[in-house]
Design a protein that fits this description.
- This protein is α+β, with helices and mostly antiparallel strands.
- The chain has 13 helices and 14 strands.
- The longest helix has 44 residues.
Length: 412
């Protein structure tokens, strides 16, 4: 087929689409809805993966979090406090390569007053000196805790980003006074926003105080800790971190006098554990959403095929006239297949636009983390073209196979 013939068929396809604009609009709309769903699915998977990677990076590749209690075999409200200050001291003394050991105490659902507002924060946290360096969670404004703050159990605190907004409505919280369970505290910093939610706990809704202040002012245990964060040199390799993890587990079992075969009364979490968990969850999400996308595409394809069959029936006189004037079987077939491809591509662009708008709405309401990329757009267009080819072949063959006399009578 010459270039001139190709151009004529393309021009005729465009004219036919324009002439039959109503049916063309329905066909493109059927494709656009499927592509919009596919766009949101692919973008949400990529967004979740990027969010997980950001979380892992924030966690730090050379740190181990030690959480008290057995999170696998015990419910949250039934986990005993098993980590002690002695554990923190012995880990710092015995474990090789330890750079820092940071303690943490947590208390849930604490009443706070500030800026004329009463609020119940999800978490009251007690932290050691240099909180940002120890936990990788830095301040957007203000200063960090110092050793002096801990020695004197100063009545100072950080606010989480969400807490600062709720108490002070966008105004600077630095130097302001908040009252936490009757204890007045001066705000010396605001933590950077994490954007994470675990169950009913929002990470950014918290008040953080020096851990000595938490023990003395809020009557918490002087012996037990909720978590420990053990940091190793930044040059530690993944193999070294795996070895440190095993040594840490063996040391804690020895310190807690756990007999052989008894379950751990602690949980060790590293960046590798987080990534493995994310990979498992991601695989399940991809399978589920992939099936949804396939079903959506098949439904859209069948809808397109049915609409094309109706279009062939409506345009039978046109087909008969063209054949009577000498149009070949191949020319009719190519024109209808090209119309299917053009409408599929148009539907893909419309669907990508709808998917982008819908994805942005979901992101604004924090329902999903959407990440649009060239891959998402390329995949949407390629899938639409595939649908146009697969489900447009049979209607195109039906159009090309109409007998001229029958078609001219309008009895197709």
């Amino acid at each position: 087929m010459s270039l001139r013939q190709t151009y004529r068929i393309f021009r005729q396809a465009c004219l036919s689409i324009r002439a039959c604009w109503a049916s063309s609009l329905f066909i493109a709309g059927a494709i656009s809805l499927g592509i919009a769903a596919l766009t949101v699915i692919l973008a949400s998977v990529e967004g979740a993966e990027r969010k997980a990677e950001e979380l892992a990076i924030k966690f730090g590749p050379t740190a181990i979090n030690v959480i008290g209690g057995n999170l696998v075999e015990q419910a949250i409200n039934q986990r005993p406090m098993t980590l002690t200050w002695e554990d923190a001291r012995r880990i710092g003394e015995i474990m090789p390569g330890v750079a820092r050991v940071a303690p943490l105490l947590l208390k849930s659902d604490v009443a706070v007053q500030g800026g004329g507002v009463r609020h119940t924060v999800d978490t009251l946290a007690g932290s050691g000196a240099w909180h940002g360096l120890s936990w990788g969670w830095y301040l957007t404004e203000g200063r960090d805790f110092t050793e002096i703050d801990l020695q004197h159990a100063e009545n100072v605190c950080f606010l989480g980003a969400a807490t600062a907004e709720r108490l002070f409505d966008g105004q600077s919280a630095l130097g302001r006074l908040v009252v936490v369970e009757g204890v007045p505290l001066t705000v010396i910093g605001v933590l950077s926003r994490q954007g994470l939610v675990s169950g009913d706990v929002e990470f950014d809704d918290r008040v953080t105080v020096p851990i000595t202040t938490m023990i003395r002012r809020f009557n918490l245990s002087r012996q037990y800790l909720t978590q420990l964060r053990v940091a190793f040199p930044e040059t530690s390799s993944p193999e070294a971190m795996s070895s440190y993890r095993e040594q840490m587990g063996a040391l804690l079992r020895h310190l807690h006098n756990l007999p052989a075969g008894a379950p751990d009364d602690f949980l060790l979490v590293t960046m590798q554990d987080i990534m493995q968990f994310v990979d498992v969850v991601k695989g399940s999400i991809v399978i589920f959403l992939g099936l949804v996308a396939v079903v959506t595409m098949i439904v859209g394809g069948f809808t397109q095929a049915n609409l094309f069959y109706l279009a062939v029936s409506d345009r039978s006189e046109e087909i008969g006239l063209r054949k009577a004037l000498g149009a070949s079987h191949q020319a009719i077939f190519r024109q209808f297949l090209l119309e299917a491809l053009l409408l599929s591509c148009g539907g893909a662009l419309l669907g990508l636009g709808l998917g982008t708008i819908f994805g942005e709405l979901l992101s604004r309401f924090d329902l999903l983390h959407i990440r649009l990329s060239p891959f998402v757009f390329t995949a949407g267009v390629l899938v639409a073209c595939a649908i146009g080819c697969i489900f447009g072949v049979r209607p195109a063959r039906a159009a090309a196979g109409l007998p001229p006399v029958t078609a001219l009578k309008g009895n197709a």
